[in-house]
Amino acid sequence: MNIGFSAKDEQFRQHVAQWMQQHLSGEFSTLRFRGGPGDEDFAPLLRKRWEQELAKGNWIGAGWATEHGGQGLSINQQVIFYEEYARAGGPGRMGHIGEGLVGPTLAAFGTAHQQQRFLPPILAGQQFWCQGYSEPGAGSDLANITTRASFDTQRNEWLISGQKVWTSLAHEADWCFVLARTEPASKGHHGLSFLLVPMAQSGITVQPIKQLTGTSEFNEVFFDQARTCASNLIGQPGEGWKIAMALLGFERGVSTLGQQMQFQNELDEVVRIAKANGAAQDPMLRQRIAHAWSGLRVLRYNSLRMLSGPQDGSLRPEATIYKLAWSTWHLELGKLAMDVLGPQAELLAGAPYELTRLQSLFLFTRADTIYGGSNEIQRNIIAERALGMPRERR
C-alpha cells in the first residue's frame, strides 16, 4: 500500500475532521477521549446515542460494500476516518464489534436473509454485539472450547450450554456470536459451529468482572440451555473454526489505525506532562519517549503494509506480528507514563478516588500481553504459521 495520501484524500480528511468537530460537541463533548480500553464502562447510554449520531453521518460501516449498506470507502479513506476519529477524541465505540467483526463476517459467510436481518440495525447504531469466544479453559488456546450446542429438531433451535469469559460489554449487548461445539465427540478445531445468540433470554446470565482499574467492562456469561433459532447458524455445522479465524482476520483491519491514534493521544499526554513537570530533562526518560515515538511509527507502517493484502479475513504473514508488537509497545508506554509522573503516579486527588487517565492506562496495560492471545502464544503463531518452523510438541 502507498503510505502517502492524494490531494483528494486530504480533502476527505478535512471533511472528517470538520464533521467530528461539529458533532462531538454539546451533550457528546463529555465523551471526548473516553470509553477506550480500561474505561469502556463510561457512559454507555450516551455512547449508544453517539453511535446513532455516527449513523446519521453515514460513518458506521463506511468501508462496507455498497450492496451491504456501506459507502464503499477506499482503504486510504477508511484509514483517514479512523485516524481523524481518534485525533478528535472520538469515544470508544460501543458498536465496534458489530461493525468491525460481525458485519464483515456476515458479508463474507452469511446468507442473504441473515445479511438483511442483522446488517441494517448495526448500520443504524441500534443493535450491539459481544463476542463469545474465550472460556476459563480456552483463552489463547481457543480450540479447547467446551461450550456445547445441540439441535432441538422439534423447535428448530440450537440449545447452548457452557461458559464464556472476558466478554466485553456483554451487559450492554443485544446479541452475542458464540463459538460452540456441536459435534459431541469432536476435539480441537473440529466440530465447532458459529452461532448468533440473542442475549435477552432466561437461559443467559451475565456476571461482571471487577478489575484493578475499578471498572467492570468484562463479564462472565453463563449459557444454560440458551436458545437460538436454526437460521442463526452462520455457515454449516462444523465450519465454526474457519469462520472464527476469518473474523479474527477482520479484527486486524483498518481499525488498527484508529487504535494507534488512541495510542498517540496517550503518548501526547505523557509528553505534555514530561514537559510540564521537568521529567523531559531526564536523559533516560527522553530516550524512552523517543523510543516510544519511533515504535509507534513502526506499528503504523506495518499496519499499512498489512492492509495492502486482501480484505477477506485472511492474514498476511506480517499480520501475525501485530498483536505481539502493539501489546508490548503499549505495556511499556504504561510504565513510561508512571515514571514520567513520578511520585504523583501513586497519589489520587481525593474522594471518590478515581484513577487518572494515565493511572488507568498503566493498570490496564498489565493485561495487554495476555488478552487476545498471550505473547507466548503469539510467538508460537509467528514461528509456525509465518516462518514455517516445526510445530511445538503438544
Task: List the main descriptive attributes of the protein structure presented here.
single chain, 394 residues, alpha+beta, Butyryl-Coa Dehydrogenase, subunit A, domain 1, Butyryl-CoA Dehydrogenase, subunit A, domain 2, Butyryl-CoA Dehydrogenase, subunit A, domain 3, four-stranded mixed β-sheet, 43% helix
Describe the structure.
Residues 238-386 form the Acyl-CoA dehydrogenase/oxidase C-terminal domain. Residues 8-125 form the Acyl-CoA dehydrogenase/oxidase N-terminal domain. InterPro entries: Acyl-CoA_Oxase/DH_mid-dom, Acyl-CoA_Oxase/DH_mid-dom_sf, AcylCo_DH-like_C, AcylCo_DH/oxidase_C, AcylCoA_DH/ox_N, AcylCoA_DH/ox_N_sf, AcylCoA_DH/oxidase_NM_dom_sf, Mycobact_Acyl-CoA_DH. The chain has 394 residues and is α+β, with helices and mostly antiparallel strands. It folds into three domains: 7-94, Butyryl-Coa Dehydrogenase, subunit A, domain 1, CATH 1.10.540; 129-240, Butyryl-CoA Dehydrogenase, subunit A, domain 2; 252-386, Butyryl-CoA Dehydrogenase, subunit A, domain 3 (Up-down Bundle). It has eleven helices and eight strands. The protein has helices at residues 7-23, 44-56, 75-87, 96-109, 112-123, 240-251, 255-277, 283-306, 322-341, 357-365, 375-386; strands at residues 129-132, 148-152, 157-164, 175-181, 192-198, 204-209, 218-229, 233-234. A four-stranded mixed sheet has the order 1-4-5-8. A hairpin with a 4-residue loop joins strand 2 and strand 3 (157-164). The radius of gyration is 21 Å and the shape is globular. The mean pLDDT is 90.
